[in-house]
Amino acid sequence: MSPCARTKDPLAAPARPGAFRHILEVLAAWARLVRARCLPRRAIQPRRAPAVLLTAALLLGSCLLLLSPPTTAGPDATLYVYAVTPLRARALEQKIEDSMPGVDVTVFGKLSDFKTALEASPPSAALSPRPVLASLNRNADLQGLKAGSDAEQYLLVSTRSLTRDMLLSLRYGMIDLVERKALPKFVAGLLGVSDAPEVRRVTKIEDLLQLLQFQTADAVLLPERFRADFESKSKMHFTMLSLSTAKVGLVAVTFLSDRQFIEGAIRKLPRHVLADLGVDEWK
């Protein structure tokens, strides 16, 4: 599935119900006409009239079906997803879609693509971290929870020793959760400082590790749930600092249409899929 809303094949849709009714009416009229014209000949050719009628009916029916423009079936419910996860977008997309029959799911790997698609082709619902929805001026109609909390702890991770006095002088790396221009201010809020620092935004968790490896950032902000996986992928020694201010809203859902159907499908997502999204239940 491409990172954009899918277009259904109109040729695969059934013909309009009215078209079949019209075909039957035309066939009946044609049958009456053929029968009337064949009556004088029945004594001479008693068995040819039914053959002629059948051939004519088949030809007419075929023509009407070919000429009748196909129509598409009603669109499925659609869900757009942007989530902070180590999974590739296609892998997460497949897992969610397999768990939501009747819902067309698209997972985006980039926040910019997610936002563009929301504006160009609005889905039935959109699922993303709460700061993303807030940046789009969308309400969190359905909030994900982890151990009863609607926010998760982010850790400050560096290859150097960290103290709170150093926070204003460091260069940071952060997963893209808000607009590019708004990200430094967002990070300042997580650090609990007044001045916006220099920030490098990335799209994947593994990119944060590369920022530290190539020293393009002095520290990165990492969701605590990825700590073990992050450490296992490098031989570098990390210093980690937990700040009380560094909490980020978990994934939430905003509904744009078809809420009743798609909300039921989201609430029925299995635990292993919820774990990939960083939550264990909805409220």
Rounded mean pLDDT is: 83
- The gyration radius over C-alpha positions equals 30 Å
Side by side, the strands of the main sheet go 2-1-3-10-4-11
The CATH topology of the largest domain turns out to be D-Maltodextrin-Binding Protein, domain 2
The helix content is 25-40%
- Number of beta-strand segments: 11
Helix count equals 10
CATH class of the largest domain reads Alpha Beta
| Parts with pLDDT < 50 across at least 5 consecutive residues | 1-17, 39-46, 68-75
Overall geometry: elongated
| Oligomeric state of shown chains | single chain
Helical/strand content category? alpha/beta
Strand content: 15-25%
Q: Which sheet architecture does the biggest sheet show? A: 6 strands, mixed
Distance separating the two termini: 29 Å
- Total count of domains: 3
What is the CATH architecture term of the largest domain? 3-Layer(aba) Sandwich
Provide the succession of SSEs: HHEHEHEHEEEHEHEHEEHHE
What does this 3D model show about the protein?
The protein is α/β, with parallel strands linked by helices and 283 residues long. The chain folds into three domains: 15-67; 77-143 and 251-282, D-Maltodextrin-Binding Protein, domain 2; 151-249, 3-Layer(aba) Sandwich (D-Maltodextrin-Binding Protein, domain 2), CATH 3.40.190. It is 38% helix and 21% strand. It has ten helices and eleven strands. The protein has a six-stranded mixed beta sheet with strand order 2-1-3-10-4-11, with helices on both faces. The radius of gyration is 30 Å and the shape is elongated. The model is unreliable at 1-17, 39-46 and 68-75 (pLDDT under 50).
